[in-house]
Amino acid sequence: MTASPGTGQHPSMDDPRIMLDGQIGQFETVPPYPPRTERESEFYSLRDGEMFLNMGPQHPATHGVLRVVLKINGEQVVDLDPVLGYLHRGVEKLCENSDYHHIISQVDPLEYVSSLFTEWAPVMAFEQLLDVQVPRRAEYIRVLTGELLRISSHILYQGWIALDLGGLTPILYSFIERDEIVEMLAAITGQRMLFNYFRIGGVNGDLNHEFMSRLGDWMSRAAKQHEANIGLLNENEIFVRRMRDIGRLDRTTALRMATSGPNLRSAGVPYDVRRAHPYSVYPELDFDIPVRGTNGGGDSLDRYLLRMDEVRESLKIIDQCLHNMPDGPVMARLPRLLRPRPGRAWAAVEAPRGLYGTYVISDGTDQPFRMKIHDPSFVNMQLVGLLMKGNLIADTMAVMASLDPVMGGIDK
Amino acid sequence: MDRPLRTRLETRFADKLTGPVRQRHDQTEIRIGPGDLIEVMTALHDEPELCFELLADLAGVDTGDHMQVVYHVWSATTPDWLRVIADGLPRDNPRIPSLTGLWPGAEWMERETYDMFGIIFEGNRDLRRIYMPPDYASFPLRKDFYLPDDAARSPGGGVRHMEQTVAPVQATERVVRRTVKA
Amino acid sequence: MTALNRSWGNLTAFGKVILPLLLVVLVVLPVLAVLFLMFVGPWLMDVLNSNLGIVRFVVAIGGVLLFSIPAAFIIIYMELKVIAYMNLRVGPNRVGPGGAAHSLVAGLKVLTKEDFTPSSADVVVFTWAPVLVFLTCVMTFLVIPFGPGLVGQDMNIGVLYLFAVGGMTVVGLLLAGWSSFNKYSLLGGLRSAAQVVSYEIPLTLSVVGLILLAHTMSLNSIAEQQSGWFTNWFVFRQPLGALIFFIAATAEANRTPFDLTEADSEIVAGFATEYSGMRFGFLFFAEYVNVFIVSALITTFFFGAWNAPIDINAIFAMVGIDPITVSLDPGSLGIGLVLLVLSVPVVMTLVFAAPFYLARRSSPAWQSLVLGFLLFNLVAIGGLFMLTYISWDWVAGLVWFMAKAFAFVYVFVWMRGTFPRVRIDHLMGFAWKWLLPAALLNLFITAAAIVVVKSL
Asked: Looking at CA atoms only, how far is residue A153 from chain C in angstroms?
């Protein structure tokens, strides 16, 4: 065991010798070294009456392994500092050592709730580097499965929010819906969660009979079921009162904070990658972009209602996909060993949480030189500190849940 | 591919660009030096005919002999993505002004780039590590990062086979594994 | 004999010791008990008769303690199952028939868990706080009338005693939260103190109107005044008071939507975070006993306690039976009694099974017999129930009381499965800005109405 790892200025926080016998019971949330940045010194200095509360990495309600240090004054949260990195897996470094086909299964666990989108952006970037034309049927299948997964993610979001606020029932109903969708996708991809379905140049396999029959069954009652599920929460006085006027995010702040996705749209900015920068076959599909909070910005309730609106739009898209689906191959023919041209490529898709982008630098070999993944939840988490000023501890959960973070993407 | 955008950028930033404006598929790319970053980004953000409001990505790149920071921005005035590459950061002391004055949301993205590459963003109020533990010594995504070397210096101390170095710790020269002209 | 030998061989060493011991105890104990009663019995009865008050007190305490734990078990099981079915899932279904032994096993688990104390906690307070919570919950059982004559201590300040003792729960919760060296517990304890104290006031005020109407603070008398038809129940005379009491009681019992003291999505387990083992068991059971208590209070105050909705005496008078003078004398029937007892079930089963047998399409014949038997059981139980009114009306009263109390427990469980939680400032605002003025309004209107009616 080395004596003083690290820079030598302070002992490592992993060092078990830090917890000496005389210090037991002296836990403090403040790190054991002097603050190194301006923000750190601002945050970790206490005024009269303030206290640190550590919602640690093990917590029933943070969406995964996230540590949030709250500075509270009674019940009011004065400041908030999320500490990340508990789920960091080094995906970007792994991708640098994987060949292009393997990357698709590497990036799946990033947004594990809606993992087809995490595959879609890299695949689009690789197709740019390889100048591959994706068959139209494959594009339609991509849109169809993507929108199904978006619906599943938003319905699950509804359950999560209710669970974080204390209602035990809606999450079970959400999981019923999600189970049906995920079984559908398992019929074509073979997996219920980390699908590994998209390929460079198309998708892995064509739709089959089981998928179509499950989809038909589900679509026949999806709209009504969605309305029923919404009705459980929307009219609940307690739920509405806890979400209204909490975490109001206005247009300028949202754009300055580089937010994207439903969080941006509920702040009044009608920006959706599918319309602003169309990819795949979205130009041919007819759907609206719901926007909320156009005057004064959007609160948590707007963020929730917007995602419920998006589910309806996605149902429309699925309908159109099913009607307009062309025949043809589902994957372009590509060699086994891929060596794209040296260059740079960027591709972005509209994931359920926002703009999911991939920047790839290829150097002509069969492994990318650099692969940068831009995850929307990562940027959206910065909003929590901003939106939480002056609210109560109970609202931390409401705000964090309403921003819909997924720790896999935040921590990469 | 938006040809008028290229002429607009070339005329507006003629003296700042360190390379030609490249366009491929739906992306336009400009290269600038790190010192001009704030001026260029402010111009891109504020000027009404450019109006690049949305910062989509902030990436660090280690090309092997120098470092870059790559920004992707989007504007409603053009159908293209704009990629701004701040090129030419030296590997031993990479510094670049921070974008948090314009886009406060860039703070965490810059923290991540610092954490992975060691690029110092001057002006970022909160430049500490975000993924790795606060006392971590290396920068993982650099091309001279060597995992057994790093793991041997952690408190776990090279317990697992992969973390054991064949050469003494501290004596490993900083070997750059791959270089590219990017 | 070989089957017995084989079974004996299949026993473990432990079993070979325990089983004979058990058999010996089961045989010897009754003999010893009979001998004891024969020889010591009369002297014991003399002693007991001379100290009847103390005996009654001890029996009351014993009954209360022995009742509260099984009641908590039942309520825990109910909560798990009912919420599960509301969530479209099944709930416990492994232990016992339909999972019925689940809470018993959970209680055993809680007994056997490691019972540690955080090293920086205030050990004395940490140890005794759960005891205080449980004790104050159980002490309120003393005044609740479970049936006519089935009340532990019929104090004439019963309501005052109830709220006095129930108000000590907050001390226990606060001590539990503060003594564990944990910020989450501290927050939970403070929240619960604020909540319980705020909702005490509307709780007590909503009952004052009732006391004005009933002219008594004794719960037994309040229950007796609601006899007869269900329109005598106080809920029809004090609807606002009943509503306020219900809401305030939900907050007192720390139930959803007011369960932020144990909001497990924010502050892990609130004041009970550092507790484990039997201490946690105390807190856990205290909560469910509290739920039963508030349900019992609601039924006592507003829904007629042990009275049936219909006026049995009036019906008997209409029919012509005088319940006091009619008596059954089974001894006069002789052997006819045995024949009657044996033949009635058989005959009634066949009678009830006949329609099912004739109407069946494809089910086997024995199923109609089973249905007939079940129907006979229902009818017989109903008949015996009516019969108890003739001789033992306390049984009927107890059954009615339990049914009503558990109906309200079901409503509490139902609310838990449906509502999300309120926030602390919403909760306090609601108590002080809405419930308190409403309770005062109720009080004024009641008092004014009494004065007006009296002067007419």
From this structure: 20
